[in-house]
Design brief:
The chain is α+β, with helices and mostly antiparallel strands. The chain has one domain (about 5-330): Double-stranded beta-helix (4-Layer Sandwich). The protein is about 15% helix and about 20% strand. The chain has seven helices and 15 strands. The protein has helices at about 30-40, 40-50, 65-75, 170-175, 180-185, 205-210, 265-275; strands spanning about 5-10, 20, 55, 80, 100-105, 150-155, 165-170, 190-195, 225, 230, 235-240, 280-285, 290-295, 300-305, 315-320. Helix 1 (about 30-40) runs parallel beside helix 3 (about 65-75).
Length: about 350
Amino acid sequence: MSTKFEATGPLPGAAFGATVRLRDGGQGAAAVVAAAETAPDELAAALAEAKGILLVQGLNDIADDPDLLIRFSRLFGPEVEDYRHNLTDLKSVHVSVPQILLVSNMPPVSKAPPKRPEPPLAADGLIPVQYPHRKGWHTDQSYRRPPPDISLFYAVTPAARDTGQTLFANGILAYEALPAQLKAKVEVEGLLGLHAQPGSGRGREAALAGRPPRAFAPHERSQPQPVVRAHPVTGERALYLCEWGQMDWFEGPFVGMEPGPHGAGAALLDEIMAHLTERRFCYAHEWTQGDVLIWDNRCLIHAATWFDGEKEQRLMWRTTVHGNPGAHYVGEAKSWIPAA
């Protein structure tokens, strides 16, 4: 890295990621963002070197000046998404900065925390990460084409320690470690997963219950995505897949394979996801107020964890950055924008 920042990695308990700090000892979001803007490619390069995730701590002043988060986000791509124009419920959009998505159990968002896994700990005594013991793994907005590049997640008011973690699984490391038999299956030329928007009624739970999905508008349709993506910056190959709630379990989960929750496609997805979420490929982030995590959706998946939503109030801010999805998407119009 240049003289502006130093990166220390990997992140605790993981084989990837890095914590980033100003070399001159400066602290706070205003100092970090100003320094980064003078070397605009530096943090993006550090993100690629860390295989997809950076942690910046102590940025508490973003809460008072949310535009700092937008300026920070612009360092990772040319477009910071405006959530008013992508089918998001407006209750979840920041009232004065529409590029910020609110993730909270507090009104008006009132998003309940995910359920606790059963049992609550894995056999090794740690928080469960491996699918299907842990469900909810996804990558942001994979049900759109082109999908987004980068997400930034800021802890305004995190949950209590040891709850409300965010889990990450690294598709690059998991791809590199694929057993030969499974690699042969995922390397089938043109293998595509069919990704569905949560809430569209096309998840695995709905398919298992026999509930017919609602009709789609053309701009809401499930979108095919390559199961193996070549990273547009590093060229590294990564697994790119979601599971129960963000795949289409009526027409998919894979294009051209037996569909449905009991078909050959379901069996392959379960096998891939169990491999991708092995603990050796994962990182569990314990949030502290003022943390910003920057992650690369092109090579990471993530999952939320339980917190006591009846006793705690949690508020997180997210931005989404577009601009370099890779050669597979060159020239494509945004699938989620209705035709004129």
